[in-house]
Fold:
Amino acid sequence: MTTGEQPAEAVSPGACEGAELRSQIVELVQKYFAASFPQTGFVPGVSRITTGGRVFDHQELVHLVDAALDFWLTAGRFADRFEADFATMFGTRYASLSNSGSSANLLAVAALTSPRLGTRRLRPGDEVITAATGFPTTVNPIVQHGLVPVFVDTQIPTYNADVSQLEQALSPRTRAVVLAHTLGNPFDLGAVGAFCRAHDLWLVEDCCDALGARFGSQAVGTFGQLSTASFYPAHHITMGEGGCVMTNSTLLKKAVESFRDWGRDCWCDPGCDDTCGKRFGWQQGQLPFGFDHKYTFSHLGYNLKITDLQAAVGVAQLAKLPGFIACRRHNFARLRSATEDLSEHLLLPEATPNSEPSWFGFPLAVRSGSFGRLDIIRFLEERNIATRLLFGGNLVRQPAYREVAHRTVGPLTNADFVMNQAFWIGIHPGLCAEAIDYVSEALHDAVHTLVTRCPR
Structure:
């Protein structure tokens, strides 16, 4: 097949031979996995304890090779399957794949600027409430669309937005709230949801770190009009690169996919023509009647599509997600229990009330007056335990935001505390019980050593 059409059911005599060869290739891929990715045990002090990483078996390789043999390189049958399965798993009507979680956030905010939303569309100068502590690409789409971020402070030790400041953040220009569930710990969706309903605001949930988390009886990602996910290798499941936008709104889904697919008005899948049945029967804007709908553009869009190779890996990963989530919760609980006695010097994480987190990491903060954060980070890193800061800390203080127009609610004291005192360590499914116990022992050694060296 050398045309632009997607693979069809084989009917030629050579197709039988192709199917047999494909079966042989799959069998060889399974053998290759066994030979090339042997299981290794944990060796304390030698094995690297990472903050995240890929957890996979032969199924991911089989799917990847299966997609490669189709040689359908843009989104195709695996992307369609993933979007349908993902939406079903998380209880949303639509799931639209993108090339990263950051792109998903960009598309979610972009969709809210669509002229098709009428008076509810976001326009330059409108304000969007967000958290001062977090990952930059939760906030960047707000700035990139000429909107004004309004930063609220952080609650500690949930590390989510301080919902008590929402009313203070409100102004006549407020149009939306964009917040992330920090490290898989849901923000207070009860308070945020009620606030958005009371003031007729859009809500975008950044769930890139929080697949499988719940607030009350409901999955995160189903409260806002739009929500996003990431499939980077450190996240709950991976495609290498990849992201997704979820919504229950047909209008918003079409806007998301238009911005993702060059801004075009046409909704035909790659390689397909005339899905609407009137490809040359449209008249829009100042274009002549009959102008090719495939080349009619209704938004200032991008090309943020995913490949079917990535989606194929995602399909295999999605089947493992419930087990991954359970493992993260188990590792978190084990480490939380083992470090309870360190709470005099380390501020331990807490779940948001009425929530069931799907933990991305284990956040800690050095209590003021105990010792320096850099001291304990160095201690852990020397013992092969990877650490990360809580993303950008207080984003307002990052160089990239120096000239960004914004408002803040109060002095952002807790965001500064996070910037100076907080860090996190991994609890992902690739870590066994022995690894978690080793981390606990190292934390105990670190605190004892540093407190002895630097008494209060």
Q: What stands out?
A: Residues 1-5 have pLDDT under 50 and may be disordered. Residues 60 and 313 are 5 Å apart (CA to CA).
